[in-house]
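Lab notebook page, bench 4
Experiment: in silico fold of construct C2
Operator: M.H.
Input chain length: 235 residues
Purpose: comparison with the prior construct
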Amino acid sequence: MNPKSSYKDIFGLALESFYTHQDKTSIKVHNEDFYDDEIPVEYLFRTYQQMPELEQIALDLCKGRILDVGCCSGSHSLVLKSRELEVLPIDISPKSIKICNKRGLKEAKCLDFFELENEKFDTILLLMNGIGIAQTLDNLDFFFEKLECLMHPNGQVLLDSSDLVFLYENELDETDDYYGQMTYKISYKKSVSNAFQWLYLDFDLLKKEASKRGFLCELMFEDEHYGFLAKLKFN
């Protein structure tokens, strides 16, 4: 959750404080319709053994040249690099990229996924609800077009999301906007981001939207908390 439109480098501030001073102050996530949530900053520095099964499976499926989108502190990229795979970690947070560099990911770059050009990858990795960068259903065309531009013909996209229907306890109305389109603010200590949109998709809708744009969508894993891992390939 570090969209450019709301940019105050909240994640970068937290990563820098933890890495430099072992400051464990959490990142807070605010949504006006639900209770605040917290992201423990140390969780962003987890090892492969500390990662949930969904992430471990995704990393085990990675192959070829890999683009790690929204790499944050570089934890996923470090695992891939330790396996002697070629990986390009990118994030829009300058401070996060500096932490990646200090952790041994000299190739990490401060780049926006939607502005990346003239590159091709065998695997595009979007973890921690990576499809959220599309922000809304209306932006999915642009999102899938960008994937297509960056993928080799036999490439794959590995992404996760969550079906948020459980939050509404049968209170949904068919006339409402899609329930996975959320608006958040995030904060760290006294720094607060502007409001930004973030998209969660249920698997059936992801499969339907991907199919419209020529992608095969395969369910690779489901967890006990409405989360899932999907693989996209060209049809």
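Observations: The radius of gyration is 17 Å. The longest helix spans residues 10-21.
Next step: discuss at group meeting.
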